[in-house]
């Protein structure tokens, strides 16, 4: 098992940043790495329960991920399970993601913890995807 932790600072209030990482309408504006769009979804991390998103790249490849929102503590944190689906729409190994938001001198800090990934390769792949997504978040929420 491997874990991933990323931290980013944004020049917005903790409440505003929390909205960007929990509200479905706002999530859609930055969810997924650069070069993909969300074609189908039930993204809403403001409530407990199931969620999913299907992302498509420029070549039409589809990537589905789903899970359950496990906790919501506005404006501090939200947690959810995460599992990729295969070509037959079967869920793979499950991991867990937590977005934690804290106040900083100039705005708010987002800490993304993605735990229980299968191995170091999976962690490296997720680091690339999350880093790209967080770049998009930075252009949206500022």
From TrEMBL:
InterPro entries assigned: ASHA1/2-like_C, START-like_dom_sf
SUPFAM superfamilies for the chain: Bet v1-like
Domain Activator of Hsp90 ATPase homologue 1/2-like C-terminal, residue spans: 12-138
Signal peptide (from-to): none
A Pfam family that the UniProt record links to this protein: AHSA1
CDD domains, per the entry: SRPBCC_CalC_Aha1-like
Family statement: Belongs to the AHA1 family.
Name listed for the protein in its UniProt record: SRPBCC domain-containing protein
Species per Swiss-Prot/TrEMBL record: Ruegeria haliotis
